[in-house]
Protein 1
Amino acid sequence: MLSAIRNQIAIALRFFQQTDDYSISCDDICLDQPNDPSRGDLYTNAAMMFSKRLRGSPIKIAEKIKEHLCSLEVIESVSIDGPGFVNFVLKNIFWNSVINKILIDGCDYSSCNCSNNERINVEFVSANPTGPLHTGHARNAVFGSVISNLLEKIGYDVTREFYINDQGNQIKALARSLFLRYKEALGGTITADQFTEDMYCGDYVKDTAKELIDIYGDRFLNKSEDQWLPILCKFSIDAMLRNIKLDLASIGVVMDQYTSEAAICKKHMVEEALEKLKDNGDIYDGILPRPKGISEDDDWEERPQTLFKSTKYGDDVDRAIRKSDGTWTYFAGDLAYHLDKIKRGYCKMVGVLGADHNGYVKRLQAAVKALSDDKAEIKIRLYQLVNFLEDGKPIKMSKRSGTFITLKDVVNRVGKDVTRYMMISRHHDVMIDFDFVKAVECSMDNPLFYIQYAYARICSVFRNYTDGNTDIDSNLLINADKTSLKDESEVGLMKALLLWPEYVKGAAKALEPHRIPTYLQNIASLFHSLWNKGKTNTTLRFIDKTNEAETKARLSLLKATKTVIEDGLNIMGITPMVEMR
RNA sequence: GUGCCUGUAGCUCAGCUGGAUAGAGCGUUUCCCUCCGAAGGAAAAGGUCGUUGGUUCAAUUCCAAUCAGGCACGCCA
């Protein structure tokens, strides 16, 4: 809707351009609502933003912008204020086209194709397949899935990917744990000290042991470890992965692809990655310096290793890729995995990791840069941890005592939608306090309720109008004359709806899903306010049985509002509620 | 020791590539249901945007120091 306005501003700016050193694109032009509505419907600060680059005075540029804006039919008036703000008022007729665009496009109103169907790989969750997903994974899963939805909105071809760490010591430990439970289930006695520090003693391993017996009976019981280990490794990974997929489904997350670390290694991708880096001169044998944080009496010792020169690509220190016993490090596997992604054709990648992985960001970015000759790029988003509270009191979790909360616990307790909302309603860099009691309260302590309530109220109006139907066909509303919507609350709502695609685009580009619930809360607030105005001012009621034309105009605004709320909730993976009773 | 993140109203948080008088909710105080859902709305009070410098027409936003809190840093995965 705003592209014509942006275009005119861009043309005005180019008038001052003296060199071709840079290009002014419409995306660079900021349009927003002034804090004070009396200044106008929208403003741009482009004259000031570009005055330095264009070497012109902001006022002169603003005058040129004004001249071009005035040539547009939808502009009522333009004024220049302060150091160079250009404020303008839109004609009533403009709102007709805004509402109609939403009525016609539906949830596609916020979509654009500015990313040209480019492929992008979003890797998230990637939990070790050694147990059920826990609460930390919940934020990861929701964050990753909403980012994926947003990226699709702006025209990316998104692959949602889960990397399975299905080899290494922790898998062997899992298999050994399974074997102990297997023995136990077959009547053998096991003692607590047989579970070493790195093993898994959770009850879920007992369940897997039963499944193992169902299929294999007691045939491993008296066999040596090298005979059962490979089979039990595979068996336990498969079982854990099945559970992980169920857990993810319970909060509405479906992956497009699962990629196995073992499969990558089998393809000799590690060797290939190493070759590639060697060709670039990024591999050498050396000794890493002692990390400063390690105290003197620690058992750290110098060791010669094969190293990746990641400092060349912005990392703090070079990274080991081969252990002294000759086997690969975990990072070597990651080099292989990211080379695999690059070879699959992804130039853009996103990774979602918990804040405790912050030390890993630079080396991953270095790896992608080095392996792709700087052609591919990975953006890592770290999210802070979630504290779980029970009515204000923190719930302590410990793996040892078995008092850790699983993702399934959370979903069972508060449901998919509340879980998802809580996980993305805050900036990813901010810790979340997730209170089980407050999360399901029906008040403003629970903002999701407020948004759902607005949606349900709109459905309620439609029910009253149609005698029972919670929706109205947009086609019945397109011809309504929306220029009669003149109350400041109505116009305020329309202005907010106008900017919805801007918010979606901004949230997607910044990889900041929390902007969506923030926006929806504002929409809900504007709507509730309008609703209550109708209580005292009967001329603002949505349904006026004596005036069909007026009623349709108002219902079209409601339908547009409903569409945008629904769209926003869809992006968040939350199901809108047609009634709350 | 180094790196990353956080610090905005009593509390929990927004604040979009620097923009005009810094915004919500909770809590507190006062109003608004014979009327489409009061699980709502209107209004008041509440701030030296951790501190100090710097960059410029303009800094909560950028830069540098500094204080406070969180996380991380070895051949773990």
Note: The mean pLDDT of chain A is 92.
Protein 2
Amino acid sequence: MKIPHFSLSELVYLVALDTYRHFGKAAEACHVTQPALSTQIKKLEDILGVRIFNRGTQPLEPTPIGKQIIEQARKALKEIYRIEELIVEEKRQHRGYLNVGIIPTLGPYLLPRILIPLKERYPELRLNIRELFTEQIIWHLKRDLLDVGILVTPLNDEELTSEPLFYEPILAYVHPEHPLAEQATVSLQDLKRSEMWLLTEGHCFRNQVINLCREDNSFIKGVYYESGSLEGVQKMVENYGGLTLLPALMAEGIAQEKQRYLKPITPETPLREVSLLFHPPVVKETKIAILKEYIQKNVPQSFLSPDIGAIVHWQ
Amino acid sequence: MKIPHFSLSELVYLVALDTYRHFGKAAEACHVTQPALSTQIKKLEDILGVRIFNRGTQPLEPTPIGKQIIEQARKALKEIYRIEELIVEEKRQHRGYLNVGIIPTLGPYLLPRILIPLKERYPELRLNIRELFTEQIIWHLKRDLLDVGILVTPLNDEELTSEPLFYEPILAYVHPEHPLAEQATVSLQDLKRSEMWLLTEGHCFRNQVINLCREDNSFIKGVYYESGSLEGVQKMVENYGGLTLLPALMAEGIAQEKQRYLKPITPETPLREVSLLFHPPVVKETKIAILKEYIQKNVPQSFLSPDIGAIVHWQ
DNA sequence: TAAAAATACTCCATAGGTATTTTAT
DNA sequence: ATAAAATACCTATGGAGTATTTTTA
């Protein structure tokens, strides 16, 4: 029954310093002054008997053992925070924040479906949503700046774990005068022969489109325009011709009269696997379970099984 | 970057109070006075806003939510202790204690083989060994009073995880004038027809012998004497006749001239699966890995594979 | 020469001690 | 009646503040 020679606040400061790599910023994030944080870090290093950060380098960097200590401190702190969360869960109030990161090709189409019913049932649960690219979601999760990410898997990262949410079909969207506009469906072969509007780099959906349309391992054919949003590529199709691929939830929002230019893809509907991503140990277990429940309840029920098509990877 | 409103010492006191269920004893284990521990527990309950222990009952008992909090506090504290252990591991000094629990039918025969080479290679590693029954090992592990247990599996306990170490053959030991003494081996059928000296209740090996010798699910035949130690049953065989079963490591220590009365069992050598048992998260990972290495190095190498016989369950 | 981090010094909140009372069996 | 836990009160450690110096890019 030994009490450690360091305190929780020291661990919090340590983790903050690793996150911000700057004494002043870390101190601000902890609501203390820079000298307070500096002395506590120094004291922690003295207690543990190891140097955790290499000083006098720009930017500040942890030592090898420091990296291990920081990682372990993050894990320990989350188990500590879980104690408080247990009590909130026990009281069934579901009060508090849930920090959610979501990719831009999903957020604006998925979240409006769930926010209102969720708010009605759990008025005390505050969702703190940030639209981020996959890479940023991973970065934020590993620093515990997010509680959960919503993005497209599979992904292989040792530190993170994921739970599938649903499987979203990918559709083709063609210009009215495009030769394919007459067909009820378009084939993968058609896609591989076509010019395709693409999203800019960073969007995982861009990579899925490329993976779908490239012939084996050869170069990408006839793909040479890029927009930063799905609405962007949609408008490019409408105004300049050609075609693009769109995920089903976004495509549902396209005006009624244009829906006929959305074509299912044959022979197998390409799917993107949308998942929740965490950085264990998970603190806000129940809040995340609620989020999952509401997403799965408010998405077309056919999306819940991957049997409706073939999952497209993107890495 | 929020600092919890409670401190590590409060969690240590909480866990100690759960372990001892007595303010005075818990305080003593924490090297503080009873009023200090009392006030800290009360403060923790105030901070968390829940009652953790039902007072005024004998013995002291945690509330339902209290049980969850205590379990989570144990987990969190172990992740905290792991920080200090990381540094000891980094320095490759392997200084410190490892609290080991081992069953009585293994301890005196297995440990002498490893203690000397282990001490030579890692003089700073202090093994703190306690001989305990399986049930006691589990009890102590769950309260983190032991770092690791050495016992016979399979076992099914949700909270604990195990790693097989080796598979120890079980042999028959017969009196020189027993009818089976003439045979080179004895069959399972022979055993089922024989009177058998047994260990007292609590020894898992007793249950394995019973499981081996009982016909299907019927009652146990001809088994009606009990001793508290393997040497006890050995002496009973030698002085009063009959036979018993002995685990191989213990049997190896029997005098040379009596070794001929040790008989392999046919058709399949019965084995006991000896494993390490933990209560995750594991704090002293490397120390346990060293222990495992030295056990496996100093046991007959044929024991390392289960292919030499058939594992006998005992539950 | 700024910006960043470390140091010096002061204050006060609180953990823990002793002494004592209250509460349960 | 006795053991156990809670309360009262006091002390001292150390965490955090302000002011300042030192260091590095």
Note: Residues 64-90 of chain A form the longest helix (27 residues).
